[in-house]
Amino acid sequence: EIWLDWLKDEIKMASESSEREKVYELFERAVKDYICPEIWLEYAQYSIGGIGQEGGIERVRCVFERALTAVGLHVTKGAALWEAYREFENALLETAQPAPGSVPSAEQQQMLCSQLEKIHTLFRRQLGIPLLDMEASYAEYEEWSEDPIPETTIKNYKKALQQLEKCKPYEEALLGAETPKLAEYQAYIDFEMKAGDPARIQLIYERALAENCLVPDLWARYNQYLDRQLKVKELVLSAHDRAVRNCPWTVGLWIRYLLAMERHRVDHGTISEMFEKALNAGFIQATDYVEIWQAYLDYLRRRVDFTQDSSKELEELRSAFARAVEYLKQEVEERFSESGDPSCTIMQNWARVEARLCNNMQKARELWDNIMTKGNAKYANMWLEYYNLERAHGDTQHCRKALHRAVQCTSDYPEHVCEVLLTLERIEGTLEDWDAAVQKTENRLARVNEQRAKAAEKEAALAKQEEEKAEQRKQARAEKKASKKAKKTRIGDKRKADDDEEGEWGQEEEGAEQPSKRHKGDGDGMLPEEDMEVETGLFGRSVPEKPDHPANQKETASTSRKDIPKVFHDSSKDKVTVFVSNLSYSMAQPEVKLKELFESCGEVAQIRPVFSNRGTFRGYCYVEFKEETAAAQALGLDRQVVEGRPMFVSPCVDKNKNPDFKVFRYSTTLEKHKLFISGLPFSCTKEELEEVCKAHGTVKDIRLVTNRAGKPK
C-alpha cells in the first residue's frame, strides 16, 4: 500500500519523458521489494501510457511478461494480469485491422495473423495455469476463437482445473483467517513444497512475506530454500537483503546473508561493508554480537592461504580477531554489562588458528594465558582444552606445567584433571615426575574433600534451622487457629445477649449491603488489632473483639449504641448512590469534606459516614445523589487522593443478592496504546515519568499504581 501511494503521487507529477523514466525506476524498486500483483498491474498500465514513445509497445510487452513470470501463478489475483495483457494485445489487433471495404496487403495480412497468434498463445498459456474463475476464461476463449480449441490446450486446462481443486482449501483458509495467517500460509507452503514446483513455492513464500514481513523465522525458511534449491545469485541476494532490512535485530539473518555473499563470490569490500552494517543493526543481546563476529572471522579465515608464512589476508584476520576481542570488551560490555563471551570462544579460536595453521604456539599460549585471567581458571574443561592444544601442537613440558596449574586452580571437577595429570606421568614421566604428581593430587583432593565436608555440614545445619522454623510456624498457626476459635465462641455468646435486647435498640434493616472490608491491595490502613471489630452486616451491630466483663457487658453496649446513630441504606436507591471507602480514619467532619468533593458531580442528597461503637470514623460511607447521572459521574473520582490516600468509589450493589459482583475499572484485554512499566524507584513521580515518555509521542495519561495507603507499588 505504501509503494502504491508513493507511485501514484509520482505519476501525477510526471509529465515529461525524463520524469517518466524516474517513475519507471521507482516501479523497478517496488517490484523488487515485494512480489505484489497490484504493483505489477499498475506498472503495466503506466507503461501503456508511454506506448507512443520509441520502442513503447515492446516495453509494455516486456513489463507484462515479467509480471506474468512474477505473479502470473497467483491463484486469486493472477488472472487480472493475464486479462490486462490480452486486452492490450486485442487493442493492438483493432488498430491493425484494415479499413472496411479495403483489401489488406500481404504485409498487413501477416501482421494480423501474427497478432492473432499472440492472443491465442496468451489464452493457451493462461488456461494451463490453476487460477480462480478459470472456467470463465475458457468460455471466453471458446467464444473468441474462430477455430476449435486444440486438444493439447483442453488437456492442459483439465489438468490445471484438478490442480486448482487441490489449492482451493488453502486459498479458502487464507480468505477466512485473520491476520497474520501464519499457520495457514505455512500449511500452504508445505503443500507446495511437496508438489515441488520452484516458481509456485517462491510465489507462496512471497505472498506470506508480504503480510508477515517482520517475522524472522519466515525469512529464514525462505532464504534457506533459495540457498539450497534455486541458487540463483540475484534472487538469493535480493531476498537476503530484504530479510535484514525488515528484521535487522535478528543476527541469524545477517549471518546467512554473509554466507550467501561468500557463496556467490561477492567482492570482499562489499562483504566487509555488510558486516559493518550488521554491527550497527542493534542486536538485542550480547551473544548476538559474538555470533556475528564469529561468522565474519570464519569468512576471513577461509580467505587466507596458510601455505604462505605471511600475507595481507592473514594480517587482516589477526587484526579482526584483535578488534573483535576489543569490541566485545568495550562496546558490548558497556551496553549489556557483559561481553556475551564468558568462555572467550573467539580468543580460543584465535589460539587454534595460531597453533594449528600458523605454527605459532607462543602466540597461542599468550592468548590462553589471557583467557585464564578472565575468570576461567576454575573450570576443568578450560584447562583440558588448553592441554589438548599443547598436546597436539606444543611439547610435554608445557603440557605438564598446564596440568599442574589445573590441579591447583580447578574447583568444579578437580578429580578429572588429577586423573589426566597422572595418566600423562604414567605414559611419559620419570619416577620423580610421578611422585610429584601423586603428592600434588593427593594434597589437592584432601583439601577439596575437607572443603566439601564443611560445606555439607553447613548445608545440614541450615536445613535443620529451616525445619525448626517450619515447625515453629506450624505451631504458631495451630495456636492462632485455636485462639480464633475461642474468640468466635465468646463473640457468639455476646451476640446472643445482644439479640435478647433487640427491642431496646430497635430493628435493623435486613439485606443491607455488606461491603468488602478491604480492597485488593497491600492492606495498609487496617485498624490496629485492639480496635478491630467484627461486623454482622454492612452497618449492623458490631462488637469489640475483646468483650467487656460479663457484668458490665449490657451496660457498655447500652451506652455506646445510644450515642452512635445507626446508618441504614435503602437498596431501592442503589442507582443514585455510590459506596466510598479507604478514607483516612482520622478524617474530621467527613460529611463536610466529602460533600465539597462530590458536589462537582451533581446535587448531593445525603452523605452517610459510618462510625464504630467508640465513635471513630470507620473510613467508608454512602453518598446519595438526586440524579443517576451524578452517581455515574462520581465513579470517575475513584482512586483520587484524599488526605494522602487513594479514595475508592464503587457502585452501590447488594452483595447478598449479587455475591459475584466485582468492580475493576481498567480493561483486561490487550490495549495497544498503553505501556506497563515496572522496576521504577519508589521515589519516581508522575512528572518524571511523563518527561521520559513524551519524547516518544503524546502522553494521554500516566497512572502510578498505589497501595491502600497511597504509597506507590
Briefly, what is this?
The chain is mainly alpha-helical and 713 residues long. The protein is built from 27 helices and eight strands. The protein has helices spanning 2-13, 17-33, 37-48, 56-71, 78-96, 106-127, 134-144, 151-176, 182-195, 198-211, 216-230, 233-246, 251-263, 268-279, 286-303, 312-336, 345-357, 361-376, 380-393, 396-409, 414-428, 431-500, 502-505, 550-563, 590-598, 628-634, 686-693, and strands at 533-535, 542-544, 577-581, 604-611, 617-625, 641-642, 645-646, 648-651.
Question: How would you sum up this structure, described in words?
Answer:
By secondary structure, the chain is mostly helical. Among the domains are: about 170 residues, Serine Threonine Protein Phosphatase 5, Tetratricopeptide repeat (Alpha Horseshoe), CATH 1.25.40.10; about 70 residues; about 90 residues, 2-Layer Sandwich (Alpha-Beta Plaits); about 45 residues, no CATH class. The chain has 27 helices and eight strands. Strands 4-5-3-8 form a four-stranded antiparallel sheet. Strands 1-2 form a two-stranded antiparallel ribbon. It has a two-stranded antiparallel ribbon with strand order 6-7. About 10% of the residues have low confidence. InterPro entries: HAT (IPR003107), HAT_PRP39_C (IPR059164), Nucleotide-bd_a/b_plait_sf (IPR012677), RBD_domain_sf (IPR035979), RRM_dom (IPR000504), SART3_RRM1 (IPR034217), TPR-like_helical_dom_sf (IPR011990). GO terms for molecular function: RNA binding. It comes from Ceyx cyanopectus. This is SART3 protein.
